[in-house]
TrEMBL record:
<dbReference type="GO" id="GO:0050661">
    <property type="term" value="F:NADP binding"/>
</dbReference>
<dbReference type="InterPro" id="IPR012816">
    <property type="entry name" value="NADAR"/>
</dbReference>
<dbReference type="GO" id="GO:1901135">
    <property type="term" value="P:carbohydrate derivative metabolic process"/>
</dbReference>
<keyword id="KW-0378">Hydrolase</keyword>
<dbReference type="InterPro" id="IPR011549">
    <property type="entry name" value="RibD_C"/>
</dbReference>
<dbReference type="Pfam" id="PF08719">
    <property type="entry name" value="NADAR"/>
</dbReference>
<protein>
    <recommendedName>
        <fullName>5-amino-6-(5-phosphoribosylamino)uracil reductase</fullName>
        <ecNumber>1.1.1.193</ecNumber>
    </recommendedName>
</protein>
<dbReference type="InterPro" id="IPR016193">
    <property type="entry name" value="Cytidine_deaminase-like"/>
</dbReference>
<dbReference type="GO" id="GO:0016799">
    <property type="term" value="F:hydrolase activity, hydrolyzing N-glycosyl compounds"/>
</dbReference>
<dbReference type="InterPro" id="IPR024072">
    <property type="entry name" value="DHFR-like_dom_sf"/>
</dbReference>
<dbReference type="Pfam" id="PF01872">
    <property type="entry name" value="RibD_C"/>
</dbReference>
<keyword id="KW-0326">Glycosidase</keyword>
<feature type="domain" description="CMP/dCMP-type deaminase">
    <location>
        <begin position="33"/>
        <end position="154"/>
    </location>
</feature>
<keyword id="KW-0560">Oxidoreductase</keyword>
<keyword id="KW-0511">Multifunctional enzyme</keyword>
<dbReference type="Pfam" id="PF00383">
    <property type="entry name" value="dCMP_cyt_deam_1"/>
</dbReference>
<dbReference type="InterPro" id="IPR050765">
    <property type="entry name" value="Riboflavin_Biosynth_HTPR"/>
</dbReference>
Length: 593
């Protein structure tokens, strides 16, 4: 991919990058203290993406010459331009001979070498990384690629081990805590959030709880939701508060709402049963109130049964659905077993300067079975922050997992056995772009060029952008043309998908009349273009010969396979059809030659 070689003064800022002061350290080579500051800055920049799209690994890149920052960038969302490419575009010619500081080893999309090639082609001479990638199938690959190109790579804790870098390393751990917890424990990173009065109450003894915390604090809660894949509450919260649990933060991402209810003693009408703006899942005990399950299903609410309903089983289920981060906004009766089962990793407690008293007023955490103060759970890395009139106390219940002991040493060229094929499984699932087969997703960051109605070629950021926009092609209505442009210019594929689905639902008159019969052909044309444009994707697809491809979307039962194989899996089918087409063409070509 060609790089934009322009002076830094005239370079456009990276997509979505908020205005931040440039660090000026001076000198030709950054001192250790300066380098630690630059790594921390890379972590700060990486965190700017949180809440814009479905949670994903956070990548930030800062390019500096002698300590002076000349370019930076961050991964805005799945399927968007990588942080490294944004940073070198911003730096232009000043990137040659400079040092790139990354909070984590790149590897957002399988077989996508853009991050590495961007740094190499820009002439970056050295890369400093905070962490190796925690996912086994990506760990060490980018490091090996950079070193094979003659780029010096230094990793905190391995090549840079002084105490100077301890805080910088912690910053890198914190910004990707969700991915680290998922890799280490096979459950999503879970945060328990609650607001309480100065005397430790979350409601009056009559159950009234609106509002304990200030409007400023509630704004922070919306931000926390925007950073999460899902928000969990119990049935009592639904009955008492009738919450909406949407982010309402102005970003594109809206988390899934999960209600845990063993008995399904739930109201017939509730804001959570409105699934047009946010998806809702009710998890319950197997066999519980089938009549209520049917009513919820008719409203579009997904009901999932467990043999034994427990917080750990629910979190393992969320892990299987690809969730990275979950926010618990439940009452004390659910918070206690969640903590006891070890699935709560961090706590956010908003303490309001109010006193309401009440012997029977509920507290944020129910019975944990502790009888002595020495049994109390101590938070780690506690921080205190004033938020409006409230005090926010946060800290970790479990230390952020340090995966470095299991990471190959820096002189090992690869941790993989080259004799073992990664494509030996008979069923290959794909969903998130950062997973092993993420390149097969419509959200993967592979732009395509497709002809319009007049034969003029247009560039589309992703296959998802192209597909969603073509719902409104050929409709003689200015609003349809506006919908087309809104989707085409969406900042991420998730935003394009949300806009396309919402407009289709709210304005069916704008959707082309033949869409139901044409949509498969539209998708296939886009897929054929994508896999013919990128040779490494073509090779990966062909390498899966003999395997069944399944798009593991739990929501989309047309394009995806569903959570229990009940989906039609048309995206997987089209990819297998395309694979056959490519292999047959290749076979004919080899015979002729």
């Amino acid at each position: 991919m060609p790089l934009i070689g322009v002076p830094v003064a005239s370079a456009a800022p990276a997509v979505g990058l908020r205005s931040r002061p440039i660090i000026r350290c001076g000198g030709m080579v950054a001192a250790p203290v300066q380098e630690a500051a630059l790594i921390r800055r890379a972590a700060e920049v990486a965190d700017l993406s949180a809440g814009h799209s479905s949670p994903h690994p956070n990548f930030g890149c800062v390019i500096a010459r002698g300590g002076d920052v000349v370019g930076e960038g961050f991964l805005y969302a799945q399927g968007t331009k990588c942080a490294e490419l944004q940073a070198v575009e911003m730096a232009g010619g000043l990137a040659r001979g400079a040092t790139a500081y990354l909070n984590m080893e790149p590897g957002d999309c399988c077989s996508d070498q853009t991050a590495v090639s961007s740094l190499v082609q820009a002439g970056i001479s050295r890369v400093v990384m905070g962490l190796r990638h925690p996912l086994q199938h990506l760990r060490g690959k980018a490091i090996q690629s950079l070193r094979s190109e003659g780029v010096q790579v230094d990793i905190l804790g391995e090549d840079l081990q002084s105490k100077t870098f301890e805080d910088a390393l912690k910053s890198c751990l914190i910004v990707n805590a969700p991915l680290l917890y998922r890799a280490a424990f096979r459950v999503p990173f879970s945060v328990l959030k609650y607001a309480m009065t100065l005397d430790g109450k979350i409601a009056t003894r009559f159950g009234h709880a609106s509002w304990i915390s200030s409007k400023v604090s509630r704004g922070r809660v919306f931000e926390l939701r925007g950073r999460s894949d899902a928000v969990v509450v119990g049935g009592s919260t639904v009955r008492r508060d009738d919450p909406q649990l949407t982010a309402r933060h102005g970003g594109a991402h809206v988390p899934v709402r999960i209600v845990m209810s063993q008995t399904l003693d739930l109201p017939e009408e509730a804001k959570l049963w409105d699934v047009f703006e946010a998806y809702t899942i009710v998890v319950t005990q197997r066999g519980a109130r089938k009549d209520v399950q049917k009513k919820l299903a008719k409203k579009g609410v997904e009901v999932v049964e467990f043999d034994i309903l427990s917080p750990r089983d629910v979190m393992e289920y969320c892990h299987d659905r690809g969730y990275l981060s979950v926010l618990w906004e439940c009452g004390g009766s659910l918070a206690a077993p969640a903590i006891s089962s070890g699935v709560i990793h961090k706590v956010y407690a908003f303490v309001a300067p109010k006193i309401i008293g009440g012997v029977n007023a509920p507290s944020p955490v129910g019975e944990l079975g502790m009888v002595q103060m020495s049994q109390a759970l101590n938070l780690i890395d506690v921080t205190y922050e004033q938020v409006g009139p409230d005090m926010l106390v946060s800290g970790f219940l479990q230390p952020i997992p340090d995966l470095s002991p299991t990471i190959p040493s820096s002189d090992e060229i690869s941790a993989l056995d080259p004799t073992v094929s990664p494509f030996d499984t008979k069923i290959i699932s794909f969903y998130k772009t950062w997973e092993r087969y993420g390149s097969f997703s419509n959200y993967s960051p592979h732009p395509i060029q497709m002809p319009d109605e007049n034969g003029n070629y247009m560039t589309w950021s992703t296959v998802e952008h192209y597909y969603q926009a073509h719902k409104f092609v050929g409709v003689d209505n200015p609003l349809a043309k506006d919908a087309f442009e809104q989707i085409k210019t969406a900042k991420s594929p998730e935003e394009a998908s949300q806009k396309g689905r919402r407009l289709q639902r709210e304005h069916p008159e704008l959707v082309r009349a033949d869409w139901e019969s044409a949509k498969i052909d539209v998708m296939y044309r886009a897929l054929r273009c994508k896999f013919s444009t990128y040779p490494h994707l073509n090779a990966m697809l062909c390498s899966t010969a003999g395997s069944v491809l399944v798009e593991a979307s739990p929501h989309d039962l047309f394009w995806g396979g569903g959570r229990e194989g009940e989906g039609l899996n048309y995206l997987g089918r089209l990819l297998m059809q395309l694979r056959t087409e490519i292999l047959e063409k290749s076979s004919k070509t080899s015979v002729v030659s």
